[in-house]
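Lecture notes, unit on binding sites. The following record was shown on slide 14. It pairs a sequence with magnesium ion.
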Amino acid sequence: MFSRDIGIDLGTANVLIHVKGKGIILNEPSVVAMDHTTGKVLEVGESAHRMVGRTPGNIEAIRPLKDGVIADFDVTEAMLRHFINKINVRGFLSKPRMLICCPTNVTKVEQKAIKEAAEKSGGKKVSLEEEPKVAAIGAGMEIFQPSGNMIIDIGGGTTDVAVLSMGDIVTSESIKMAGDKFDVEILSYIKKTYKLLIGERTAEQIKQNVATVFKDSRKEEMEIRGRDMVNGLPRTITVYSDEIGEALQESVSLIIQAAKTVLEHTPPELSADIIDRGVILTGGGALLHGIDQLLAEELKVPVFMAEEPMNCVAKGTGIMLENMDKVESRKIV
Ligand code: ADP
Ligand code: MG
């Protein structure tokens, strides 16, 4: 019977849903707005994200997967249900198969609960898959060959570095340093240097529009507004690429270090492949200006940005589900 396979990238910053034959049909921030007094979920996704930093006392905009772990399981489950219901799985003629990708540090118990939540929302056969593997497939890497492939996925909460060969992870490392921490670093830099308090969203805008981590490769400036820490009044300042780059230096060096550790633990034959093929960057954090150049310089291997790095995991789930079909039909023959 006709059924559509569904792939879900349950990210710390964004949730993407891929439906077979249709492509990515949902892409929303992993944010839930809750009313504390009633415990009710008010908004999920894009509309909840607009509330971050702008809520009155009783309402809180929560990121349930903050730092790459499930900070609040009930809210995560509510969010997942909301998104699956939004694409109206129940309207499909038969129950779809689902492949869900969640952060690498999610515990076994949490994985089981995610599976159950997806099944309750209308999934038939729900499976979970490791994120770096799916990201690599989505980035177009040939990970099923007996050769080394290295991927660095920089998300919102975690950076995952992995070397894959013959369809599996050979060496890997996951650190809690990624896009969100960059924002925090920018925020504290502005606070310390200019005695100005800014919001998370402003910090993220600075990161995207001004920052560079490869010296002298970007010359932008931006006017930002915040609250003066001394007199409490609104104030405007201008920030420049160079200073933001310096503020991010330490954070980025942790990512470089994680990549170096993985390379050190990689069997030599696979290291040789990586020199030939290069390292692929995925995830939204990989869009940080200059990080590809800096990594290439530090790791001494070519570094390439994946096409549409924020969509790799979702695309990868689609490719994997299709391959499952092939594997299953081969079994029948
Ligand atoms: P996750 O997989 O954890 O949900 P994503 O891969 O969706 O994370 O990436 C989200 C992160 O990417 C956020 O921290 C966001 O600020 C960052 N990001 C998105 N676009 C850019 C950009 N142009 N420059 C720098 N960072 C970016
Ligand atoms: Mg991700």
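Take-home: The first strand starts at residue 6 and ends at 10.
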